[in-house]
Amino acid sequence: MGSLSEVTPLIHDLKVTIHRSSSIFPSCQTNRRSMFLSNIDQVLTFDVDTIHYFAANPDFPPEAVAQKLEDALGRLLVPYDFLAGRLKFNPQEERLEIDCNAAGVGFVAASSELSLEEIGDLVFPNPALRQLIERKYESLGMEEKPLIHFQVTSFKCGGFALAMANNHITFDGLSAKMFLQNLASLAHGNPLSITPYNNRRLLAARSPPRVTFSHPELVKLELPPTGEGVQPATVFDTGVDDLNFKLFRLTANDIARMRDKAKIEGASGPAITGFNVVTAHVWRCKVLATTNSPADPDKLSRVLYAIDLRSRLQPPLPQSYTGNAILTTYGSAKYSELEEGPFGRLVEVVREGATRMTEEYARSVIDWGQLYKGFPRGDVVISSWWKLGFGDVEYPWGRPIYSCPVMIRSSEIIVLVPDMKKGMGGNGVNVCVGLPSKNMEEFERLFYEFLASM
């Protein structure tokens, strides 16, 4: 049965020393231009920090890896010219765009006095892991801050970490993986493995905008025009600092039992996916753990998660589309259903979010964003890194032993990350939750109580 992460006491100081910090520029001249950003891009302006850990490879010491990455990045910034640009606000259009001005990306080489083994469980959301990502750019204004920067940190065991911090406006999960595949290919000395498609006008609003559905998952904002240094609100806004983070591991056997339970309780075959059953389970636990009792049984709760649009539009988007080809969909259920209803019904509700995302619904959401400049909001946001496949990227020095995000400090977001413990049956998932301590105790109780009933 699922278990809490078996962690040694957290290391609070990784004893990181920065040896050099530089900027990387496109290896040849690129044309200066302004890059259109879709209404989906416009609300995803927060940074995403990802760390890829590598075991020691005697043929590729960390210093050689850093040099190969710098060389490859310089060449990669030609087809990905927008990454070397800067965000700017267009007052005439009242929207953000990227000034492709070749201002460069950041690169840092560093070392830690610890070994990977001393850090402990790489999956656990240890705040100290933020030391593996250079923070100096956080104080810069929007028009000065690089859209992406990297840090290579070597450990005393010979292993190292490659950290990538990028503004989400640059990539969604799939296009970030494509970028890393191209980075690995150039580091091998090969050509691009995938030619990026950078025209984001494919996801522009219609003229005039036509909102043809109600969108209860979206919140309208009454904001002044966004100016320099001002970022629009996003679904990931948070002011919660006193969070207790825990990691709940679900094995492949746990997930199989959850799928069986959903089938017994009426869910249809197409609905019974690993993602749907895990989402239904954690949605129920989180809402019930944080609801003041007694709750209104008829009150609606919403769970949000991202849907890839590439194959859902007509014609389909290019699979190599860079940027954010995702929209947030939702499932909704009454509090009474979450507390007492059949698990199979909740799994069906989660599935309804995906089936709702047709071509017309997606265009309606994009047009809604043109009119209202709003963003998604729900009781629970599921951010799934489970099947992105960052760990499958083959670099000259091998595949990562683990790839994961640095946790976002928000009580609304539950992050699903892959399982690195193959001995647990493989294909499991880690559920990372951040809640105030009193709510976490209740979440943990419900998590295992419901799981035991599967």
Features:
single chain, 454 residues, alpha+beta, Chloramphenicol Acetyltransferase, seven-stranded mixed beta sheet, six-stranded mixed beta sheet, 10 helices, 26% helix, 24% strand, CAT-like_dom_sf, Plant_Fungal_Acyltransferase, transferase, acyltransferase activity, transferring groups other than amino-acyl groups, Omega-hydroxypalmitate O-feruloyl transferase
> Average pLDDT across residues?
91
Which spans have pLDDT < 50 for at least 5 consecutive residues? 225-240
Instruction: Determine the strand fraction and express it as a percent band.
Output: 15-25%
Query: What oligomeric state best describes the polypeptide chains here?
Result: single chain
Got a strand count? Answer: 18
Rg of Cα set: 22 Å
Distance between the termini: 10 Å
Structural class: alpha+beta
Shape: globular
Q: For the record, what is the CATH homologous superfamily label of the largest domain?
A: Chloramphenicol acetyltransferase-like domain
Q: Work out the helix count.
A: 10
Q: Could you estimate the helical fraction of the residues in percent?
A: 25-40%
CATH topology of the largest domain: Chloramphenicol Acetyltransferase
Q: Total domains, how many?
A: 2
CATH class of the largest domain: Alpha Beta
String of helices and strands: EEEHEHEEEHEEHEEHHEEHHHEEEEEH
Q: Within the largest sheet, what's the order of strands?
A: 1-11-18-17-15-12-13
CATH arch. level architecture of the largest domain: 2-Layer Sandwich
For the biggest sheet, the summary is: 7 strands, mixed
Pfam family, one: Transferase
GO molecular function, one term: acyltransferase activity, transferring groups other than amino-acyl groups
InterPro entries: CAT-like_dom_sf, Plant_Fungal_Acyltransferase
Protein name: Omega-hydroxypalmitate O-feruloyl transferase
